[in-house]
Amino acid sequence: MKLKKQIQPSLLLFALMAGSFLLFAGCCNESKKEPVDYVNPYIGNISHLLVPTYPTVHLPNSLVRVYPERENFTSNRIDGLPLIVTSHRGSSAFTLSPYQGDISKVASSVHYGYDNEVTKPYFYSVDLDDYGIHVEYAPSHQSGIYQLDFSQTETPYLILRTKRGELSTDRNTISGFQELGNRTRVYVYIETDVEPVKTGSHRDGTIGDDKTTKGGNAYFISEYPAGTKTINVRYGVSIISVEQAEKNLRREIADYSVKNVAETGRKIWNQTLGKIKVEGDDDTAKTIFYTSLYRTYERMVCLSEDGKYFSAYDGKVHEDGGRPFYVDDWIWDTYRATHPLRVIIEPEMEGDMVNSFLTMASQMQNQWMPTFPELNGDSRRMNSNHGVATVADAYVKGLKTFDLEKAYEYCKAGITEKTLSPWSSKPSGVIDQFYKDNGYFPSLATGEEETVPEVHGWEKRQPIAVTLGTVYDEWCLGQIANELGKKDEADYFLKRGLNYRTVFNPETKFFHPKDGKGEFVQPFDYRFSGGLGARNAYSENNGWVYRWDVPHNVADLINLMGGKKEFVNELERMYNEGLGKSRYDFYSQLPDHTGNVGQFSMGNEPSLHIPYLYNYAGEPWRTQKRIRTLLSQWFRDDLMGIPGDEDGGGMTAFVVFSQLGFYPVTPGLPMYVIGSPMFKSAKLDIGSGKTFEIVCSNYSTDNKFIQSAKLNGKEWNKSWFSHEDLMKGGKLELVMGHLPNKAWAASDDALPPSYQMPTNN
Questions:
Q1: What is the pLDDT of residues 403-417, one digit of tens each?
Q2: What is the pLDDT of residues 458-504, one digit of tens each?
Q3: pTM of the model
Q4: How many domains does the chain have?
Q5: Same domain, 243 and 316
Q6: Which H or E run includes 722?
Q7: 412 and 518 share one domain
Q8: Of the candidates 416, 420, 410, which has an alpha carbon nearest to the alpha carbon of residue 454?
Q9: Which helix (H) or strand (E) segment is 271 a member of?
C-alpha cells in the first residue's frame, strides 16, 4: 500500500519560523538533506487515547531532555520553560519563566499562550506572544542554553521554580536542587549574561532580598535592567552536586551562543542517525524512519559526570571506572526491539547498559535484576523480569563485555526470590510457590476474593501475562545457565520454558486463566473477560493478543494450534474479529488496546512480533503484506502517527526494524525474521569498518512482495537470517514484486528457528 504524503501542522509552524528553520535545519535543498532533517518530533503528539509522544529536544542518551510543558499538541498554553525532564514522560524538575509586566500579579510560574513553535532534536524556538518574548534553546549532554528576546518596553524578569527543593542566588547565578525521592536529587547551576538588579522571593507584591528559598514551591524572581532586550541563560545539571552541575556547564558550553550549541548538537545527531543510511524516493517513509530512530535514543540516559555517578540504588556516589552508567529504562517495553537494535548499531553502549543493570542489582539490598530502573530507583512496574532477556540476547549475539556469572545470579534471584505479582517489589510468597510447583500463576476462581498480600490492589494478578512472560524469562535464564556450563540448572529452566502449555486450553486454542484447583475459569470471553485492562487475566491487552505470546517456541505453538494451516487461519481470524461492542465500551475497558485491526492491537508492545509469525507457518508473503499495511495505517507523518504509548523507543524500534525489512521476534535467539523493506537500499554501520546492506531490486513503494533473495551472493530461500550473517557484513538482496510469490521461503527447511527442548525431556 502506497504511503500518502500528509499535510503536517508542524510544517506549517516551521514555515512561519523560516529564518530559524533555515539556520538550524541546514539547507532547504532536498538533495542535501541529512538524516536529522527528516526527524519530525511532532509525530504522535496527539494521543489516540492515553499518553502522547512529546517533541523532545535532547542529544542521544543524554541527561538533559526537555519538551514544552503541556498536555499534548492541542494545548493552548505552556507552563514555563523546562530545564530537565528526569523521567521519560515526566514533568520538568525546574521551570524558567520569562516575564514583562506588573510583577506583583505573578506567582511562581507563568502560563503562556504560544505560537510559531519550531522543534528539532537539537533546537527549540517559540514565541510567547502574550508577552512579546521570543525563545530559542539548544541542549548539550548535561547542560543547556536559552536565548530570551524581549520586545516590549516593560522591565524584564526571570522566574525560576523548583517544586520540591531549595535555591540560592549570588549576583548573576542561581543554584540549588529538587528532590526526586529515594535519596535522589537533581542539582542545577544557572547563570545569565546580564546581571540582575535584584533576585529574591515575593514579599507583599515586591521582590525581597533573601538569598535562599526552599519548600514545596520554592522560587526566585530576578529583575533585570529596564531596556534589556536579550538575556542569555545557560545552565548545567547534575545528580551529584551543585559544584558538579557548574563543572558540567563549563565543560560543555563555553559561551552564550545558542547557535554554537545547536550546531554541535546537529552534528552529533547526524553522526548518530547516520549509522543507518536509507535510500529511496519516498521522503515520507524516511521521515517516519529517522523520527523513529531518534525516539530510540531518548533512553537510557547516561549519568556519568567526569568519571563518577550518583546511584539511587544505594544512595552513594561512585567512580564509574571509565564505563558510563545508564538509567531510565522500562524493560518490559524495550527488551523486545529497542535493546536488540542497540546490539546491532550501538554494541558498546548496549554492553554498558547491561553492565549498568548488573551494577544496580549489586547495589540493591536484595540484589535482584531491575525491571523498571529509573533515575531514582527501580519502580518494579508491569510484570515479568525481562532484564534476563536483554542479558541473554546481548550475550548470544556476541556482547561479552559484562560478567555473565553475576548476570545469571541477579536474574535468577529476580525470578525466583522476588514475587512474580505485577508492580510489586515484595519477596516471593505462597502464590509464587504455587507457580514453582504447578508451572502457572493461578487466577482467582469466579467469585473468589483476593487474600494474597503480594498482589497489587489495582494491577491484580495478571495470571496469563505473568505465566507466559515468566516462562519466556526462565527459558532465557536456562540459556544463560547453559552458556555457563550449569547443566542441571539449564535443564531445569529450559524445561520450565514449556510451561505455557499448562494454561493452553486445547478446546479453544487460547491461553486461558486457571484457578488454584487447576480449573479453567468459566465463563470466559477472550475479548472482554478480566476486568479493567483485562488485569484479572492478562495485562493491558486481551486474550487475542496474548494468544501468540510464546516467542521462544513458535513451532510448538503452531503444533498446539493444530498445524500451520490452522495457525494461519487463526491469525487471519484475529485481524477480522470485530471489537464485539461499541468503541467507547471497548476502550473504556481496554484503553491500551489501541491501533486495532480486528482484535489485533498495533498500539501495545505484546503485539509487535505477531505480524511476523506467518513466516513460521510457511507463508511469509502474508507477513510482507501485513507489515506494509500496518505501517501505512498506524505509523504516519502526522500528529496522530503513533497508535499507542511509544514508551521511549519501545514501539518505534519496531518501526525501524520493520522499515529495514527484518525483526528480532525472539530476543535470546541470534536471528531475525524477514518482513518487507520500505527502501530501495538501507546500509547499517555495524562497526570495524563493516556494513550490512539490504538492497531491493524492482523497488517501488507499491512492490511489497519478495520474489527471490540472495544473501552475500548466494540464493536465499529462507524467511530469516542469523545475527552472525548480519555482523559479518555483506548484503541481503531482495527482488520485489507487486504480487506475492507464495513459493518463496514456504518449505519446512525455510522456516525461522524455534527453540527445541532437550531430547531427554
A1: 999 999 999 999 999
A2: 999 999 999 999 999 999 999 999 999 999 999 999 999 999 999 99
A3: 0.95
A4: 2
A5: no
A6: strand 720-722
A7: yes
A8: 420
A9: helix 258-273
